[in-house]
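Next comes a concrete protein, fold included:
___
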Amino acid sequence: AVVSTQSGHYGRDNKFGYSAVFMGTSASNGFGQPLASSGSCMDKFVVQPLMECSKQCEYKGDDSSSWMPIAPINATSQPLSDVLPRNVRTFDPKDEEDTKFKISQYLSRCIVCYSPYMWMTVHSFSASIPDCPMSKPSDPVQWEAHPIWTGYTIYTIAVKGGATGQSLTAPSSCLRHYTPVVTAQCQAGREASCNFFSSNDYSYFLRNKDEEIDKIGHMGDPVTGRKQEMYLSRCRVCMIKITKYTEGITSWNYNYKA
């Protein structure tokens, strides 16, 4: 479903789209968009939206794009194969629009919003969800902190040819729903296709420092009930409303530790 704007924020008119993560080139390199950037919300889903220009512009036809797929409500109890297509989806040149629809229904939706208030993301580096920071009576700046959502701390999304880092201060570093599959890789060309389980794509989450890891290998065990999410750091996105500001302040630093 298309997401809605959070309370106290405003959606830009008709700026709904699909979450774009990375655009790769035929030279095996590329560039990514942090998910907190409005540029990551593409109006339309296109397998390859890039045009390569030097002395002249050329459509290579063998470039790639990576998009954020939808996530299961419970990544441990619900197999990803029940949510995402296991087989590579190839575009039918006779009915490309129908193929786009069949693929786009598995892609994460987005909306661009603007806010008169600051946003802050805090991370616990543990399994505990951190609280929003509150100002102290002695602070020269007073504010109210309102929680927006909670999630799991994601640091980097890596694809073939590069990676897209998420600033830990940005809301994009707090992934609302955990899923080990964070990209759907689409390849342009004569046989354009999208792969939701590419072996070239990885996601990197911050680890829960309190959870002991006594082995090298796969985390989580459906037999014992130990979920993958238990090994990840939790986070919270907060909206900050300044309520009082002392005149005459030229500089002020606030350090918060969860």
Observations:
- Residues 96-104 form the longest helix (9 residues).
- The radius of gyration is 21 Å.
